Amino acid sequence: MPELPEVETLRRLLGRQVSGKCIEKVRFGVKPVTMQPGPAGVRRNLLGATVLGVGRRGKYLVFHLSNDRKLVLHLGMSGQVRRFGRDPMQRHEHMRLEFSDGQTVSFVDARRFGRVCVTDDGVLPRPVKGMERLGPEPIEKEYTAAYLGAHLRGRKARVKSLLLDQRVACGVGNIYSDEALHRAGIRPDRQAGSLKPSEVCRLTKALGGVLKDGIRWCGTTMKDGGYVLVDGSAGSFQNRLQVYGREGERCRRRGCAGVVRRQRIGGRSTHFCPACQK
DNA sequence: CTTGGTTCCTGCGTGC
DNA sequence: TGCACGCAGGAACCAA
After folding, report:
1. Which one of A22, A151, A228, A249 counts the least CB within 10 Å of its CB?
2. CA of A46 vs C1' of C8, distance in Å?
3. What is the helix (H) or strand (E) element at residue A38, kind and residue range?
4. Residue A184 has pLDDT above 70, yes or no
5. What share of chain A has pLDDT > 70, as a percent?
6. Residues of A known to be catalytic
7. What one-character DSSP code corresponds to residue A203?
8. CA of A226, C1' of B12: distance in angstroms
9. Which nucleotides of B are covered by protein (CB under 7 A)?
10. How far apart are CA A193 and CA A203, in angstroms?
C-alpha cells in the first residue's frame, strides 16, 4: 500500500526526527524479513553511523549515512516505519534502530513483503534489487508526456498495468494508478498504445497531480491500517479518493452521475467510473 | 522483448 | 462462536 506519497510523507517526518543522530544500537525481531547483507552485516554497517538525511526514490526510503553507506527500506504492501521508544519489541517488528538520544525508528511489516538493505561504501556499490530500474519521478519536471508516451506507444498491455511498472511510472501503485486514470478520464482497460497524444498529456498531468495531492494529505490510510505515520496516526487522502475502494458508490466528478465499478485488470482490483472515463 | 499468470505472506472479512 | 476460505497487493519470477 505504501506508494510514492506515503513513502514521501514518511521521508519528511523522519528527516526531521533522525537527521544528525548516531545509531547506537540495532535490534532485530524473532523472524526478520529478508535483509541484505543479512542481519549481522546490516548491524555491522549501521552501528556508529550518523544519519545525514533521509531521501526517497520511487517507493524506496533511503537513509544516507556518514559512513558512505545507505540504509534502504522497501515497505512492500504492509510495511511501516514507527517509533516505539523504549517499549518492548512489537509483533511483526523486524528491526529497531536506537539513537544516542534514546529516539528509535522501527521497521514493522506484518505481511513480510518488505525489504531491508544496506549498500556498500560506494567503492563497489551493492545494487539494491529493483532500484536501478526505476524511471524518473512522476512528480518532477523531468517527467514529461514525451517520456510516458514513449513507454505507452505500441504497447498492447492495458494502460493500468503499465502504470504499475516502476520503469514507466515509478512510485505508482494500485491506488494512485486508479486515481490518476480517473482524473485523466481514461479507462484503465484501454490498450496503452491506443492513447492519443492529448490523452497521454492529460495522464501525465493527472499522475503528477494525484501524487502531489497524496503527499499534501499525508498519504492514504485504508481501513486495514497498513499505512500509518511514524506515530501510528492516519493520513487523510483516503477521504479524497475518487474511485479507489468506492465500488458501487457515486462517481465524485462534478456533474458525473456514474457509479464506480470494480474490475480485475492484470490481477489487480481496479476501480473506475464507466461514465466519465473513456 | 512482451504479456500475463503465479508466488510469497499474514490479517481480516465473509459465509456456513 | 468457530472455522475454513478467499482476498488484498509489490515485485520477482516464470512460461509461452
Report:
1. A249
2. 34
3. helix A38-46
4. yes
5. 97
6. 2-3, 59, 268
7. H
8. 12
9. 2-13
10. 13
